[in-house]
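Hey everyone, long-time lurker, first post.

I ran two proteins through the pipeline my lab uses and got sequence/structure pairs for each. Pasting them in order. The first:
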Amino acid sequence: MPSRSDDPVGAALAHAATLIAQDVRALAAANPVVLIDGRSGAGKTTLAAELAASWPLAGRVQLIALDSLYPGWDGLDAGVDRALEWILRPHGRGMLGTWRRWDWERETEAESHAVDPSLGVIVEGSGILTAATAGLGDVRVWVESAEDRRKARALARDGDAYRPHWDRWAAQERRHVERDDPRTLTTRIIEIP
């Protein structure tokens, strides 16, 4: 098994998770909200999983991927709206939230999941940093990586299931970046090789 020093992406993500954990600890909040945005293949999911595994506060953290909320390949904006209504606003009011998983194979909503307002939440996914969501996120992260590297990682991960949809998904991400300027909404920007 290669060491972290042999894997610059893994090392960068591990370092980023450490920095974000410090940000969370500095908040002195029992139930912080961490929002992790970036374009496809940037490393959001791995970063979120590393952060969840090293969560610096007592108790568990709830990790929610927007991939579970997007209603299909044209649903970037709708997935963010769902996260706002079903997760972030209820959590911010101290109320139980409930979100429905999107079943990609059946192209319909599936089972419901509860979000405990007394616990921290990590929401990761393309599009999550907007003017509407930023005020509900205590730590707001943008993950940046070059397009050629992102595309290679995303297609290596998801292969033929993603390949025919890359361009249409990338167009939605471009609109999000142009419209919402998520880098300006962050508390931390992470550069991934």
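...and the second, right after it:
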Amino acid sequence: MSHAEAEAATVGLLHPGRMGGGFGGALADAGHRVLWCRVDRSAATARRAEEFGLRAVDDLARLTALSDVIVSICPPHHAPQVAAAVAESGFRGLFLDANGTTRAALLELAGKLSAADIRVVDGCVIGPCPQDAPGARLHLAGEGDDVARIISLFDGTGIRALDTGGSLGAASALKTSYATYQKVAYVLAGIAYAYADAQGVIEPLVGEASLITRSPLTEVLEDGMLPSVASRAWRWGPELTRCADALREAGLPGDLADAAIPALERWFPARDAFDGDTRRALDLLGGRP
């Protein structure tokens, strides 16, 4: 598809919330006509849509009748409801579910849309809202031509649209993988600082944090750290039990420390014997002896 063809697209956006509004604005700035539906939307949503240059329509049927592509960016637990409403509206174009739910949820949603003759692309967003900072990535999975169509829509925007190279469900699986780490990591950081604050050691903790130059998400594979972690799991388990007890004594939740222990226990049988074998560490964690 040429860039000129991409510029002619009419995109129905469901919905212009904080993330969706930024994506809609990026598409509008790139020359697309971006529509949104007023039904059940707040005054704040209306103001945001106007700010981003989106065009309002009065109902979903009108939006889907005018749109070549529907982009769904909403809270993941609302994604099936949004998709069902689009299917019932008679839409027969290309539907991008950019909600990054789970592989199973995406495949169930895609099956219902496909039964209504709607083509589906699986997507997930990683990175900041486009209006806040540059660098958002839209990872995509599905049929090659459909993925290419979505990528072309974002040509010239500040959003990087990337093909995972996988089938439907791959983008959602990527989001699940990334969110599992990112969201829990921020919660853990908050708990760590709260405990350090309560114990009067927040300044040295900040000093230690300043020495961290790489993310554990990078280190476990690129630096071969996962086998090292696995080989020490038999010692880390009891240590985390003590950490959980200390957190609770300070009035903080210890559940996240407790929750790591069953994962560590899967590595106990091979203590001190991984020899840098990342594959073996992953297999044991996944219950594959």
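Reply from user beta_strand_b:
Welcome! Quick read of the second one: The first helix runs from residue 3 to 7. Residues 3-167 form a domain with the Rossmann fold fold (CATH 3.40.50.720).
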